Amino acid sequence: MGLDRNIMPKFNHLQFAIDAVKQTRTPFYFYDIDLLHETLETINRLTANQRWKVHYAIKANGNPRIVKEIANYGLGADLVSGGEIEAAIKAGFAPENINYSGVGKTDWEIRSGLEHNIGFFNVESVPELEVINQIAGEMGKSARIAIRVNPDIDAHTHRYITTGTADNKFGINLEILDQVIKHALDLPHILLGGLHFHLGSQITDMSPYSMLCDTVNRLIDKYEKQDIQFKVINVGGGLGIDYSHPDEHPLPDLEAYFNTFKQGIRLREYQELHFELGRAIVGNCGTLISSVVYVKESRNKRFAILDAGMNDLIRPALYGAHHQVQNITSQEQETEKYEVVGPVCESSDVFAHDQLMPLTRRGDIIAIRTAGAYGESMASTYNMRPLLPSVFYSSQQSS
Ligand code: LLP
């Protein structure tokens, strides 16, 4: 079996996925560690010599090898649960470079963050602020916090992944920000150190970020006049990737993203700028590799039924998300349209409708591309299907 010329990916790493099928039963997640390194190197180059710190949003992919690779590049971690605190510490992220967001931090999770002396709690509500103050007091500690501001900016992304508009559950509305800041300053076990923002995810148009810069500048000016200085401004993550052209655009437009903030934010000498990128770091380095179990004809459709299902990659079923689906072993010149579906007992278990592929047969290998972010991390065992193994490709060594 070899790659079809027409669909030969620019990054030949999928050839290694085909080889890996000989040792590892499909389906599995296949990660291109070279591409991950290239992305991280680009991030480090573009952010060097600035008072900037990029944090990796672990929720995008918590695979221990991936998380460790990222920690090794010196990034910080952005996380949203006690489980992610443990994963970040285990992977070697410096605790002071760990930021913890989330609207529902429980007592044990707050305690764990305090025990590990993490950098910042990104606080999302007044009750949370008070509980953190109380728990920190009981532990004889002070909690460094940033207030997560809901900037009421619509990032025009999918409604499930928009977070920065006033009706989302996230952050503190601008109208009550003054009040909350004053309250935080009065609490004895709270050290207010920053403002945090996050607009949403899969954002490819930079204009919402420019609007965010304006809001940030306005708030910095306003609070400086009241002698309130925020050491850290955290602008969140959300940079989108090209799901339609993973080979043409293996890297996200990191340059446009960072330039928007370089030009947009009037960062003071005493301030640091934090970013929290997830998808942009890991999205394109992951591929879900599966096999065709059966090809089935119905009255109007031809189904390619895979051994991977919506429990392994839920994005198409949950968000109607598009992932490139490629038959990477068929040698056929003739093409056909297929409904590419999984085996799970749900009609939404569809990876692609009317997908044009070379003639496809039982045993062909199908690559579902750009699955590195929110693929493995959102997988479930629905239908008692086991979680998938992962295979890593690196030109240094493969494992
Ligand atoms: N910071 C905060 C506070 C966040 O809530 C998120 C993502 C990030 C950073 C990282 O965003 P990214 O750079 O990865 O876009 N499951 C959805 C995405 C949910 C994103 C949730 N928050 C998907 O598969 O598209």
Question: N-to-C terminal Cα separation, in Å?
Answer: 21 Å
Mean of residue pLDDT values: 94
Strand content: 15-25%
User: Which homologous superfamily in CATH is the superfamily of the largest domain?
Assistant: Alanine racemase
Word description of this protein:
This protein folds into 2 domains: 5-30 and 284-393, Beta Barrel (Lyase, Ornithine Decarboxylase, Chain A, domain 1), CATH 2.40.37.10; 33-279, Alpha-Beta Barrel (TIM Barrel), CATH 3.20.20.10. It has helices spanning 13-20, 33-47, 64-72, 82-91, 107-115, 126-138, 177-186, 207-225, 254-264, 279-282, 315-319, and strands at 28-32, 52-57, 76-79, 98-100, 120-123, 143-150, 172-173, 190-196, 232-234, 272-277, 286-297, 302-306, 325-327, 335-341, 350-358, 365-368, 390-393. α3 (64-72) packs across α4, α5 (107-115) crosses α6 and α8 (207-225) packs parallel to α9 (254-264). β14 (335-341) and β15 form a beta hairpin. The model is unreliable at 1-8 (pLDDT under 50). The chain is 28% helix and 23% strand. With 399 residues, it is an alpha/beta fold. The chain contains 11 helices and 17 strands. The strands form 2 sheets. Strands 1, 11, 12, 13, 14, 15, 16 and 17 form an 8-stranded mixed β-sheet that branches. An 8-stranded parallel beta barrel has the order 2-3-4-5-6-8-9-10, surrounded by 4 helices. It binds ligand LLP. Residues 57, 60, 78, 101, 161, 163, 198, 201-202, 236-239, 276-280, 315, 319, 373-374 line the site of ligand LLP.
